[in-house]
């Protein structure tokens, strides 16, 4: 019983709403038609010394705000020219409607708002162009004043009637269907403009492919625009005129180059705007309203397509799927918390070795670079924790890298996935630490198994007492070649004196004395050398550097117990 009452109430409400809107539309159209009769009554045949002008005005029955003004001029020789103007009174600037005398003619002029060329002018059967101004004729001053007043009165009434008529349904499927049905090939005055749109499967009519083939003097060019409605800004939908055509121009949000553009089969730099063409101002105007209704709905629809993040393993898998080859660049990634991104560009192979936990979770962003899209990431505090290799040679560490795609849809939701992976990888890290009493062995294992042994000579750390360490290093080349030895008293140090430092392509763990006093005794071979305030231990990479630094901090702290 209750459900029946609710259904009845809804039906009654909708019927009342429809009735109110219908009455509003009828009233608005009635007021406009009445005023247009006043305008028509003031359009007289006007004779001047050189010409005779016959004028008439009629309204479109379904859309009375759209009017047709016809004027036929006959000169002294009997030659006639007829021009037909088709326009929407709502496009006219009421402040521009003025009368003026010019020699023996009394003119009434009116202009389109902002000088837009939305007035369609047709002379004879073929010639069509768009203009921004119309001139009417009066036979004397009283006629000019009455015609001007009637036209000024008609403009706001036309705006009201148009708004009442163009009540667009805010239903996503209706709006996308309208767009596909109305962005079609055009023909006017012997010229053609082929166009059409398709919606990609799996994107809920969000992803649009627009194909344009302008028919320009026999040249056939094909342009393809690939874009997502969710990227377009409803505040940046503008009407304009290009030759015989009216266009709607859509721009992306924040003017980002998210529109993929292909011309004659060749990929061009990404675009920030796209145009739909029409041969009728009113159809274009309706299209503008359609888009202004449609684009705000595209965002929530896009949110429905966001992939679900179920676990760290799932997130890493999604990253691996998103990192794929482009026509010019090969890409792959080892999908683990300790990751390796490989990039092959023209045979030059680069590797970026990093830990997702080191990445700033607020850094993943989509950006545009020429023909491609990139997801950029950056380390926390911009620290150079990303190891770089090029063609097998280690390069300087860096703080950022990019994942590249030629299709924004491949990486559209990747930043959100990466943010979750960063957080979960950071939480999953389990510290690697030595067993009690095995600290120096733990450190030496990370030094002995290192490529640094080959590059910079052997390094070894020895315990020489409870609070005494000896660090030995062999330099293999240069003027300082030979064995070096450092004797460290840990009572002169704090845990904060141990830090990992990145310098170019090298990772060091520095052990400094408190207050930088030179209390570390050094030797070259067996010969005593200068006292120093710091010892550098070179490490293989960030991972081993952290483990060595953490262990040394523990050794220093334990000494104070």
Describe the structure in your own words:
By secondary structure, this protein is α+β, with helices and mostly antiparallel strands. Helix content is 29%, strand content 38%. The chain folds into 4 domains: 36-164, PH-domain like (Roll), CATH 2.30.29; 172-304; 312-428; 439-559, PH-domain like (Roll). The strands form 8 sheets. Strands 10, 11, 12, 13, 14, 17 and 18 form a 7-stranded antiparallel sheet that branches. The protein has a 6-stranded antiparallel sheet with strand order 1-2-3-4-7-8. A 5-stranded antiparallel sheet has the order 20-21-22-25-26, with no helix packed on it. Helix 1 (2-42) packs antiparallel against helix 2, helix 3 (172-182) crosses helix 4 (281-304) and helix 8 runs antiparallel to helix 10 (542-559).
């Amino acid at each position: 019983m209750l459900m029946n009452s609710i259904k009845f109430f809804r039906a009654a409400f909708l019927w009342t709403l429809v009735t109110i809107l219908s009455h509003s539309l009828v009233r608005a159209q009635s007021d406009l038609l009445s005023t247009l009769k006043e305008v028509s009554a003031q359009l007289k045949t006007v004779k001047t010394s050189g010409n005779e002008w016959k004028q008439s005005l009629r309204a479109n029955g379904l859309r009375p705000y759209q009017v047709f003004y016809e004027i036929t001029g006959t000169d002294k020789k009997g030659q006639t020219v007829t021009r037909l103007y088709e326009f929407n009174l709502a496009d006219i600037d009421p402040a521009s409607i003025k009368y003026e005398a010019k020699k023996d003619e009394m003119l009434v002029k009116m202009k389109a708002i902002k000088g837009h060329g939305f007035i369609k002018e047709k002379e004879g059967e073929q010639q069509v162009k768009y203009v921004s101004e119309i001139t009417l004729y009066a036979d004397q001053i009283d006629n000019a004043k009455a015609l001007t007043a009637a036209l000024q009165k008609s403009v706001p009434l036309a705006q009201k009637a148009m708004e009442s008529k163009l009540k667009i349904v805010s239903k996503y499927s209706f709006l996308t269907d309208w767009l596909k049905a109305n962005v079609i090939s055009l023909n006017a005055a012997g010229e053609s403009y082929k166009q059409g749109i398709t919606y990609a499967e799996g994107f809920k009519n969000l992803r649009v492919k627009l194909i344009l083939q302008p028919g320009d003097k026999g040249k056939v060019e094909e342009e393809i625009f690939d874009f997502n409605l969710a990227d377009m800004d409803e505040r940046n939908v503008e009407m304009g005129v290009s030759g015989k055509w009216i266009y709607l121009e859509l721009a992306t949000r924040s003017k980002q180059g998210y529109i993929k553009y292909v011309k004659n089969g060749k990929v061009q730099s990404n675009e920030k705007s796209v145009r739909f063409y029409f041969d009728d101002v009113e159809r274009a105007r309706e299209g503008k309203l359609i888009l202004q209704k449609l684009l705000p709905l595209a965002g929530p629809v896009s949110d429905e397509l966001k992939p679900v993040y179920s676990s760290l393993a799932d997130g890493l898998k999604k990253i691996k799927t998103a990192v794929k080859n482009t026509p010019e660049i090969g890409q792959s990634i080892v999908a683990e918390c300790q990751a390796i991104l490989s990039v092959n560009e023209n045979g030059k192979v680069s590797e970026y070795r990093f830990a997702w936990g080191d990445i700033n979770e607020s850094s993943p962003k989509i950006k545009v670079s020429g023909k491609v899209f990139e997801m950029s990431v950056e380390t926390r505090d911009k620290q150079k924790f990303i190891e770089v290799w090029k063609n097998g040679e280690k390069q300087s560490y860096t703080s950022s890298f990019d994942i590249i795609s030629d299709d924004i849809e491949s990486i559209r939701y990747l930043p959100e996935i990466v943010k979750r992976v960063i957080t979960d990888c950071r939480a999953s890290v389990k510290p690697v630490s030595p067993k009690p009493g095995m600290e120096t062995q733990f450190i030496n294992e990370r030094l002995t198994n290192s490529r640094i042994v080959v590059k910079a000579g052997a390094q070894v750390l020895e315990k020489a007492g409870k609070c005494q360490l000896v660090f030995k290093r062999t330099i293999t080349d240069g003027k300082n070649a030979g064995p070096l030895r450092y004797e460290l008293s840990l009572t002169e140090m704090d845990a904060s004196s141990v830090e990992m430092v990145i310098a170019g392509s090298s990772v060091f763990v520095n052990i400094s004395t408190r207050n930088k006093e030179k209390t570390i005794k050094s030797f070259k071979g067996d010969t005593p050398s200068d006292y120093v305030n710091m010892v550098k231990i070179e490490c293989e990479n960030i991972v081993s550097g952290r483990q060595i630094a953490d262990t040394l901090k523990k050794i220093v702290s334990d000494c104070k117990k």
